[in-house]
Design brief:
The chain has about 220 residues and is mainly alpha-helical. It has nine helices and two strands, in the order H-H-H-H-H-H-H-E-E-H-H. It is about 65% helix and about 5% strand.
């Protein structure tokens, strides 16, 4: 026989718990109320996004909310002693899943990939037809070839994958580039940050030259 009547809800789906009992069940299972957990999740989501997926740091409230929904969708089968550790683990999982899903959406042959800062320059000059997209890839290849620092160039080439025939493009994550080159992820981040500035300048110069040629 359960030591506490609320133990009957251990492992239960959230929808099965009567609404009037939910506050008590949450405190019984996690040792803290839902508001406190949600507030903590929101404060830590910003930090985790800044570390794992800085481009999405402004979405920290949505990430925290999704994490809390995931955490309570099916209640744990036993009472939690360290609820903060559990929330942090779930937040990290949510951020990584969101990043993987967003990256996967980019990986379809024949579709453009968001090349972070560099692509913003390309998009300004793109008209949408196939010839212009191929021209953009050619510009990017030329710009990549102009980077003289060997390790920076290697990181950028590993980041931006372009088929030899120009039929598709892809972009690799920091972890994938690190694995390919056998660099640390911190080294990849540092070299890619420095290389992005060089690449933007090289892309812009080539696009400006192309525009001048078309205008003449």
């Amino acid at each position: 026989m359960s030591a506490d009547p609320l133990d009957k809800w251990l492992g239960a789906a959230w929808s099965e718990v009567p609404e009037r009992l939910r506050p008590a069940v949450v405190e019984h299972v996690f040792g803290v109320d839902l508001v406190t957990m949600s507030t903590y999740a929101a404060s830590k989501a910003r930090y985790i996004l800044d570390r794992l997926d800085p481009d999405m740091r402004s979405d920290f409230e949505d990430v925290a909310q999704n994490t809390m929904v995931e955490l309570t969708a099916t209640l744990p089968t036993e009472r939690i002693r360290h609820w903060k550790a559990l929330v942090l683990k779930k937040l990290q999982w949510q951020v990584l899943q969101d990043r993987r899903s967003r990256t996967a959406e980019k990986r379809h042959p024949g579709r453009r990939v968001d090349y972070e800062s560099a692509v913003l320059v390309l998009e300004d000059h793109r008209h949408g037809d196939a010839e212009d997209r191929l021209a953009d890839r050619a510009v990017l290849r030329d710009a990549l070839a102009s980077i003289t620092h060997a390790e920076t160039a290697a990181v950028l080439r590993a980041t931006f994958v372009i088929a030899a025939d120009g039929s598709y493009t892809d972009v690799q994550t920091t972890g994938e580039v690190a694995a390919d080159l056998r660099f640390s992820q911190e080294k990849v981040k540092r070299l890619r940050a420095a290389g992005a500035k060089l690449l933007r300048a090289a892309v812009r110069a080539r696009l400006d030259d192309r525009d001048d040629e078309e205008a003449s």
